[in-house]
Amino acid sequence: MNMKIIIEFSRLNRLLSDYVQIGYMGAVKAYEPAQDMIRQTEVEKWLKMTYADKDLFRKLVKNGTIKPRRQGTAKNSPLYYSKEEIKRVLSAVNALKIINDCKNEENT
Question: pLDDT tens digits, residue range 48-61?
């Protein structure tokens, strides 16, 4: 099946920028794993700083797409998230929205 997608330049630019950031974040995660991890208590601030959708993040955590990791063996050990994982998943959802929007515009 061939599909033609027409996308605004600004949306394409945003999408490409996101994936460049994800590549960089992946490299940071590989070479300095501690720099990739963020405490659960700091995630909201980081999402705001990166202009990410907090509600979408919460939904993706709730459905298990984004998973926290406990650092430590105690039940009350802090939960951490991977910044790269958050950015990758949010960007994938954004890409799907763009594709669906383009399909919907084509069908109208």
Answer: 999 999 999 999 99
